[in-house]
Give the backbone structure.
Amino acid sequence: MGAFWNLREVNAVSTQSISLKESVKATKSNWPWVLIVLTNLFYWIGTTVRSSAMIYYFQYNIHAKALVSVAGGLSAVAVVGMILIPLFVKKTNKRTVLIGALVLAAISNLLLQVVGANQVAVVVLYCLGSIGTGVAAAMPFLMLADAVDFGEWKNGIRASGFLTAIGSAFCVKAGSGIGGFVPSKIMQYFGYVPNHAQSAHSLVGINFSFVWLPAILFLVAAIPMFFYAKFEKNEAAVQATLAKQH
């Protein structure tokens, strides 16, 4: 309340709203934005698949349904990774941090195949993967600002709202929808029957949905970031040019 009461806006700059048509033009040749959108979309599909299939894996594959809430609660350790993002970025760069986070999430998931039904190891790996997914969730929001700058530099249009909305909210909504739908169809194909002992075939489907598919999607999400390097190297020049124009 004290912070809100004493808050004062300084250096307020009036902005002119632009039409949807003009906003779409800001995406023309805006490859950094395209790459961020692709990464963020695949990330959200992967993380939603992971969270959607989690309860089935814990209940039927390792017979530890009670650990769902424990693992879910402990996954709040992801905040640690988020707090350290500025340090990671300072030591490396944004794309490397995002790639590293996605690879960490993928490897943590794949190692579940190694530890089997070891419940402690499963929880530890799930939490470790959550650090990766937490960092990967936060990074696009940081990088979209640079994509907005690139769009203005490239096309002369600063469509902050449109580019950010598609790059964040759309990816979250679309990724969550697809990620919630896909594992249900996979498990249905493998013969999953709710509230019954599962066949060996259906257990394979649950295992694929929770262990393998999220890892694959996280690795796919990392691919666009390898093409992001040349744009990130040019950010300082873009910002300097815009500063002169402003």
Q: What stands out?
A: The chain has a mean pLDDT of 89. Residues 119-155 form the longest helix (37 residues). The radius of gyration is 21 Å. The CA atoms of residues 45 and 178 lie 6 Å apart.
